[in-house]
Amino acid sequence: MDVQGLIRAAYAATLHARAPYSGFKVGAALLCADGTVYTGVNVESSSYGLTICAERVAMFKALSEGRDKFQAIAIICANRTWCPPCGACRQVLWDWGRDLDVILAKDENDYQLMKLSALLPHAFDNGYLIHD
Ligand code: THU
Questions:
Q1: Which 8-state DSSP code applies to residue 119?
Q2: DSSP 8-state secondary structure symbol assigned to residue 118
Q3: Mutational pocket test of ligand 1: of 86, 93, 103, the residue with most ligand atoms within 8 Å of the beta carbon
Q4: Would you give the distance in Å from CA 10 to the centre of its chain?
Q5: Confidence of residue 132 (pLDDT cuts 50, 70, 90)
Q6: Domain of 123?
């Protein structure tokens, strides 16, 4: 995996973040098992609660174009502070990406790599929906 390339893609995406209310511009780059990369940015709403994070945008873009296996996601903030994924994003990433690698980056040489299971232990998922 080209971790630095993925971080660069996430950072480049922050240019398109729509964060007029928080000013906190986030970019994500999701690496699919077939090598394709989908980027996402946060898109804020005037009603605040309808805001969507960069990670979910990247995942929904990939799912909506038929990707279904994922390897890693890089997340970076334009202001170079750490941006761990919010709880909602952790759940969605687990639902569709299972235990992918999460790369939290300040820049391409300053990052932390962890498994999603470390960020979301004892996760709920579709396994709990199956009854006999
Ligand atoms: N944000 C993300 O895009 N990803 C996260 O995991 C944390 C938060 C965005 C949402 C909102 O637009 C801004 O950062 C401030 O919370």
A1: H
A2: H
A3: 86
A4: 9
A5: low
A6: 3-128
